[in-house]
Recover the amino acids of this structure.
């Protein structure tokens, strides 16, 4: 029985039924005794009555009700009797009650010695009729209980449901939570029985939050502590490459390795920072188009170093998002395009609306991603061709995992397809836009050709 | 050009001093905030490179104290904290620029050159890139010594691009510089101004980054 409600209703109903029937049984017994006493008294009264109305002459076969039989004996002689009584005494000649069988029935008998005449009056009434009467009385008193049970059951159902409501409220509160919501349960005055559960849950949530904060703090501290030595390493390598005594190949190799080390540390930090609980509070209205311009402008040197043509095709596109997260998303996609597109290649960034979504497409003229590897590139530490990628670029395989996380954070989706160039990849990101697309033309701007 | 380097990590200071000296800078290094304030007060450097994580006080407080006494001294912040908030806080406290560790040496040099150019500009009120010279005080632009007639907005636009030479200026930045807050900007006004500037200064001087903005090469 999995439901507390069903359990309670069944058990309570069973207990009520059991006690109703025990009470009925007890009532039946005491009613039977009471009835017996009453009937016996009546039987004795009848005997007295017969004694009083009895005349001296013999009267046999007196008609009487089928349920009553009587005899009047004077000594050994039967002087009067009902038709249904036999010739023999129907009861012993003594005061008191007894049972006897005659005329095909079982009878309750009574003996009475009339002090005036010295006659023994023996009377009997049918036992089966007595019981039938008593049972009728008792069954009638039991009837309301039997009919009432289903009604009581329904009532109990409602009462139990009402009583369990605080528990259901608590369950709902817990179920409605996001996996990362560690705020205390918002139940102001819990019922006494739930107080401990709420207190314990809140304590647990509190400890969990503290632990998570500590973990994030650790990741942030660790990365922070690593940045300074990496910066020093970079500077030393820079000085080394400028030193005429250094073997060129060695310095280049070193520079490459340090570059990669720094990159991994940054990406791990980004991955930690992209946990959903960090961002929910900081969502604001952001124009994806303007942000894309800013990011492309900031990264332009990297594209120019590889003589890559980068273009942005954008239309105003407000989304609700976190600025740092969206910036990281753009930087990761653009840095990928920059790395894996050969020198002299082309990169096209498009920002615009597509239905209710803001759509960001970053496409390049690079070698492209084979179809069977497209899903895998979003996994952490996955790199196409491992360290033998023809581009010779060093990544750590976290960039797209971070991108995917950030897209999910904005309740969006990302997919990979072929670019519109002869070869290459297109990453398409869709994020819900903040406003429905406006079909009305943009407000005419003041044409300002003449300068003042 | 004399640089005051405020950084407590010895491995960084040593390498940085050497690298900066190869570029012809003279470098004076201090390892804590108090010494930095003392150095700024007693022997004013041309530029300060300030690390935010100092042993004795918060780098931002050092920056505020420097700004309290010396409004014009250019300060470049170095920090291992890389959040947007940290950057905003740094710039709000009066830093001229901000660089997150670990940084590329070439990036640091580029930033220092921009700050240097601003210093030169502030002193001489002139910026020269290639054959183009911009005289800020006299609203005068010359190409190969020949004066060129520019409208006020063309001049502002050119100034903004030349001051930030080597970096792409986005349309948003340029438009907000050109027009006062709230004024309507026609969608192609920027293109029109750039078109005019190119006609007067030569087609190759201002480079377009399609859909993003414009740029003037620093050399």
């Amino acid at each position: 029985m999995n439901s507390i409600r069903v359990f309670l209703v069944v058990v309570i109903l069973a207990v009520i039924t059991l006690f109703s029937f025990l009470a009925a049984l007890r009532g039946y017994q005491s009613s039977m005794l009471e009835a017996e006493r009453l009937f016996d008294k009546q039987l004795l009264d009848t005997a007295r009555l017969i004694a009083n109305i009895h005349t001296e002459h013999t009267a046999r076969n007196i008609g009487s009700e089928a349920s009553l039989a009587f005899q009047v004996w004077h000594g050994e002689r039967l002087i009067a009797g009902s038709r249904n009584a036999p010739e023999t005494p129907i009861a012993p000649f003594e005061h008191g009650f007894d049972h006897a069988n005659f005329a095909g029935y079982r009878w309750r008998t009574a003996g009475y010695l009339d002090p005036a005449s010295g006659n023994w009056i023996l009377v009997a009434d049918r036992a089966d009729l007595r019981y039938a009467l008593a049972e009728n009385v008792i069954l009638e008193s039991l009837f309301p209980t039997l009919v009432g049970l289903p009604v009581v059951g329904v009532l109990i159902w409602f009462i139990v449901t009402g009583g369990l409501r605080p528990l259901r409220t608590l369950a709902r509160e817990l179920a409605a939570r996001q996996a990362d919501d560690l705020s205390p349960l918002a139940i102001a005055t819990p019922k006494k029985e739930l107080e401990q559960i709420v207190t314990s849950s809140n304590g647990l949530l509190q400890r969990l939050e503290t632990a998570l904060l500590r973990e994030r703090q650790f990741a942030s501290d660790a990365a922070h502590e690593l940045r300074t030595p990496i910066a020093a390493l970079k500077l030393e390598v820079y000085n080394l490459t400028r030193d005429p005594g250094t073997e060129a190949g060695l310095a280049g190799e070193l520079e490459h390795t340090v570059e990669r080390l720094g990159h991994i540390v940054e990406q791990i930090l980004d991955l930690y920072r992209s946990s959903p609980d960090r961002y929910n509070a900081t969502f604001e209205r952001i124009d994806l188009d303007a942000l894309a311009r800013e990011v492309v402008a900031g990264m332009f040197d990297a594209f120019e170093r590889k003589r890559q043509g980068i273009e942005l095709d954008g239309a105003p596109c407000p989304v609700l998002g976190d600025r740092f997260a969206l910036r990281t998303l753009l930087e990761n996609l653009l840095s990928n395009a920059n790395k894996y597109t050969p020198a002299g290649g082309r990169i096209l960034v498009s920002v615009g609306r597509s239905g209710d979504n803001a759509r960001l497409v970053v496409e390049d003229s690079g070698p492209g991603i084979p179809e069977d590897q497209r899903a895998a590139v979003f996994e952490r530490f996955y790199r196409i061709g491992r360290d033998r990628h023809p581009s010779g670029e060093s990544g750590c395989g976290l960039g797209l995992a971070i991108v995917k996380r950030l897209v999910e954070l904005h309740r969006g989706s990302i997919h990979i397809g072929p670019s519109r160039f002869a070869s290459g990849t297109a990453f398409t990101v869709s994020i819900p836009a903040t406003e429905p697309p406006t079909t009305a033309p943009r407000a005419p701007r003041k044409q300002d050709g003449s300068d003042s | 050009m004399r640089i005051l380097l405020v950084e407590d990590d010895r491995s960084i200071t040593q390498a940085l001093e050497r690298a900066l000296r190869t570029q012809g800078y003279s470098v004076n290094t201090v390892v804590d905030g108090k010494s930095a304030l003392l150095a700024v007060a007693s022997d004013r450097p041309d530029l300060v490179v300030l690390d935010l994580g100092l042993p004795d006080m918060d780098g931002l407080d050092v920056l505020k104290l420097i700004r309290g006494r010396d409004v014009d001294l250019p300060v470049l912040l170095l920090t291992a904290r890389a959040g947007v908030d940290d950057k905003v806080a740094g710039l709000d406290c009066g830093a001229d620029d901000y660089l997150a560790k670990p940084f590329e040496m070439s990036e640091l040099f580029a930033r220092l050159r921009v700050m240097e150019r601003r210093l030169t500009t502030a002193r001489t009120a002139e910026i020269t890139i290639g054959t183009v010279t911009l005289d800020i005080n006299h609203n005068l632009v010359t190409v190969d010594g020949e004066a060129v007639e520019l409208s006020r907005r063309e001049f502002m636009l050119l100034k903004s691009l030349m001051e930030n030479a080597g970096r792409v200026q986005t349309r948003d930045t340029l438009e907000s510089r050109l027009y006062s807050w709230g004024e309507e900007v026609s969608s192609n006004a920027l293109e029109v101004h750039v078109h005019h500037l190119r006609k007067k200064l030569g087609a190759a001087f201002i480079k377009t980054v399609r859909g993003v903005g414009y740029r003037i090469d620093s050399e």
